Amino acid sequence: MKTHYIKPLVMALSLAFAVPAQAGSERQDLETLRATTLALVDALVKKGVLSAEAAQDLVKQAEKKGQEAAEASAKAETAPGVVRVPYIPEVVKREISEQIRQEVVAQAKTEQWGDVNAVPEWVGRLKWDGDFRLRYQDDLFANGNAPGAAFVFDPDGLGSFSNPINTGVDRQRLRVRARLGLTAKVTDYVSTGFRFSTGNTTDPFSTNQTLGNDFNKYSLVLDRAYAKVKPWDWLSVSGGRIPNPFFSTDLVWNDNLNFDGVAATFTPWARSDRTGKPFFTMGAFPLQEVETSTVNLAKDKWLLAVQGGLDWKMDADTRWRFGLAYYDYRNIAAVKDPIDFDTRYDYANSILKSRQKGNTMFEVSPVDSPNLYGLAADYSLVNLTATLDLAHFDPIHVIVDGDVVKNVGYDTAKVNALLTTPQAARTLGWQSKVTVGWPSIQNRGDWQAFLGYRHLERDAVLDAFADSDFRLGGTNSKGFFIGGSYGMDRNTWLTAKWLSADAIDGLPFAVDVLEVDFNAKF
Questions:
Q1: CA-CA distance, 351 to 374, in Å (whole number)?
Q2: Can you state the angle between helices 25-47 and 6-17, rounded to 10 degrees?
Q3: Average pLDDT of span 7-34
Q4: Does the pLDDT value for residue 156 go beyond 80?
Q5: Which of 30, 221, 336, 340 is most exposed, with minimal Cβ within 10 Å?
Q6: What's the pLDDT at 159?
């Protein structure tokens, strides 16, 4: 039961019950006030806001206070030379009535009195979202590709595959992706988020599920689980398994990748009218936890990252966004076995478990653990990203994206000392893309077309977290991509994309990929 309006009710009843017999017209006014207040109490009982017992207690409490006030008034009037005339100004009576009315009406709106479809208050603090994608994918391999067996344990680090791969037989697949997310507003400053999706626990980014499993069921995984605190407009801190907090493209980070760890974003002047608004993001993300001991000298692997950027509204139809990031991987390179039969080091723990293809690899322990390959290089990435959005023909936009990345942590001498054949450093990546159409597909008839080119050298980024579609994933790739989307209905659209990529170095391996998607979201 809400009690914040009990005090004014008691005040009104006390005044009414305190009326002396000789009060005259004032008595008539207070009798009216008493009748009105008692009627209001009765209405609250009928609404279920007050119980009958609570109403009786309220009236008794008011009668007691009124009686005490009347006795005090009578004593004052019998004092020698004192004449007391009770008087309650109209303004006081109006204030009491208005205060009661406002508080009761406010509670009625909050608790939705009389609304048969009303739901509990906490339901309004939950927000569901989700999406579904059905994809037809056709992988078309070039005739001149090297045979798949040639990529097994490539000693020069140019192919870097640990198993034979398909390089010559075209492949067609139907694949689905389903995601369901929930965001809960705990307080005005704290929220939590969860998302379940198709996928598996061996691939850090892909949420695709290939159809064709003897009609068997598929598994769901916890794709996101995090808490977000935003005490001020200019600061937000997230921790757990969080969405990618950085301004980026799929040159460095796969679009479906989520991060484990903690990130903070600062946005000074977020609500100001400034044409240029800076933003800063920093984070710490564990990649692989190792229980280090005297018999296991492997170390934890981490990603430490920082990014500064600027949102610049040049004019009403021209917007820029820039971001300069530094991604520093700690203990990411594998450790070579210095002494044969030395069991103090668990070399498997020095190897990053997730990988696709492209990065330079070496055999870490040829005698103790043959065919065990790990990363040869260190990775410290400097990444510059920019977007230009031209809305001169709104709702049609022209959006130009540019992205450049350089691995400044690569040490040529250190890497070549681990390889049987020395190689030149390949540590640069860049991508450009032009998009014309609606910025996003939301309604029937919305459309979008795009064209881009990518050049990503083998050690420019970690292949484990790069795009998984271009040349079927990883680095050491170059080529173009083209496609478009069309809105079939509200939040429902078709997308077609063609990706044509070839290897930059090493054995020949080219593949074209066609993707046709049906998408729906809510």
A1: 5
A2: 150
A3: 58
A4: no
A5: 340
A6: 41
